[in-house]
Design a protein that fits this description.
The protein is mainly alpha-helical. It is about 45% helix and about 5% strand. The protein has 17 helices and four strands. Helix 1 packs parallel to helix 15 and helix 9 runs parallel beside helix 12.
Length: about 375
């Protein structure tokens, strides 16, 4: 489940690559270019491409509010539900920076001193500002339904995972909601511990190191904010109180995450450190000069077989949803499914289909 502004895009793109390489059925929206499947917690039959041959999806990763009943209908009984969470205060700062949320609060920008981040003004009185929020002011040229799906300021992680807004101030309902998510999501990733999260995911899913590699930079969350945000302890306390659901959700799963790590084998941290070195080396290779030749080889270790990284894989690691959408949509088409929308491959580089097997990639070295 793709939780907004929690690093979920990195995980989603990883899943799309995994789905293609392993010939899996990946959920796709019926309309090309759409980021969501369904709207505001409702997924209708005409919102998505129906899997060929009456199959169920192997992977769902587009934006959608989690609805337990609906996903039990759409996914196989043995589906593993995974999501990623982020410290709530960090998440709201990222959302303000990305969506320019201050535009949705009439008067907030004027009350913010020059050179100061607008989120600071909001955090000073979140209970005052929230009733004034108008999502349509954030991006007036974009569809209102789409903005409501993406832009959020209060309890946004809990909202994405299915908590109704009417229950935000009902602590009993929130407690019950969090227990339900704990029951459904046995693996919850934590953005502040991304390498540890991915190694835990690798072990839970019996994946390889190749399956979880990524490059730093384009998907990096080390964002340098333009304006200063001096957040006081009082602001943090007020925000936490106002976002009880998100704080409880994050706290409970953060504790569970570290408890799970403590139960892993003694070499868990060694594998994490090895993974960090691999990510650093792969990132350096992929960000090096375009004139590079040959491939970069990740040597065999206790935790992985050797594999090669070439220019094509570097492209795949930095590409977004739309890159994979066209190839996955073509796969639906190749299985006889006709209603896949207009599939357009724009560049010479993107016309080359992603390679299907690691074995083949190792044999054929690309410049």
């Amino acid at each position: 489940m793709k939780v907004h502004k929690c690093g979920s895009s990195l995980i989603f793109h990883m899943l799309l690559r995994f789905g293609y390489e392993h010939n899996l059925t990946v959920a796709l929206p019926r309309q090309v270019g759409i980021e969501c499947i369904g709207s505001l917690g409702t997924i209708k039959d005409d919102d998505y491409l129906h899997p060929p041959g009456g199959k169920r999806w192997n992977i769902f990763g587009h934006h959608a509010f989690y609805n337990r009943t609906r996903f039990r209908q759409l996914m196989a009984p043995n589906t593993r539900y995974v999501a990623i969470l982020r410290e709530p205060l960090q998440r709201v700062q990222s959302a303000f920076n990305y969506f320019r949320i201050e535009k949705g609060f009439p008067g907030l920008a004027k009350q913010t001193p020059k050179g100061i981040a607008p989120v600071t003004t909001y955090l000073d009185r979140p209970k005052y500002w929230d009733p004034l929020f108008k999502v349509e002011l954030v991006s007036p040229n974009k569809p209102l339904a789409l903005m409501r799906e993406h832009v959020c300021v209060r309890n946004c992680m809990a909202r994405d995972l299915g908590l109704a807004e009417r229950d935000y101030d009902n602590h009993t309902a929130v407690e019950e909601f969090v227990r339900g998510i704990e029951n459904d999501f046995k693996t919850m990733l934590i953005l502040e511990y991304l390498p540890e999260s991915l190694i835990l995911l690798k072990r839970r899913m019996c994946w390889t190191l190749h399956d979880i590699i990524y490059t730093t930079g384009r998907h990096s969350r080390n964002v340098k904010y333009t304006f200063k945000a001096s957040i006081t302890d009082k602001m943090k306390s007020t925000f936490y109180e106002h976002n009880y659901a998100d704080v409880l959700l994050y706290t409970r799963f953060n504790e569970s995450f570290h408890r799970q790590i403590s139960q892993e084998s003694a070499d868990f941290q060694e594998e994490v450190n090895h993974f960090k070195r691999v990510i650093s080396d792969v990132s350096k290779y992929c960000h090096s000069s375009k004139t590079r030749k040959g491939t970069f080889v990740v040597e065999k270790s206790r935790w992985n077989d050797a594999f090669s990284v070439g220019s094509l894989l570097c492209v795949q690691l930095r590409e977004h949803r739309t890159y994979w959408d066209k190839f996955l949509r073509l796969r639906y088409q190749q299985t006889g499914y006709k209603d896949v929308g207009k599939v357009v491959v724009h560049s010479k580089k993107s016309r080359r289909k992603p390679k299907k097997s690691r074995k083949r990639r190792t044999r054929r070295k690309r410049g």
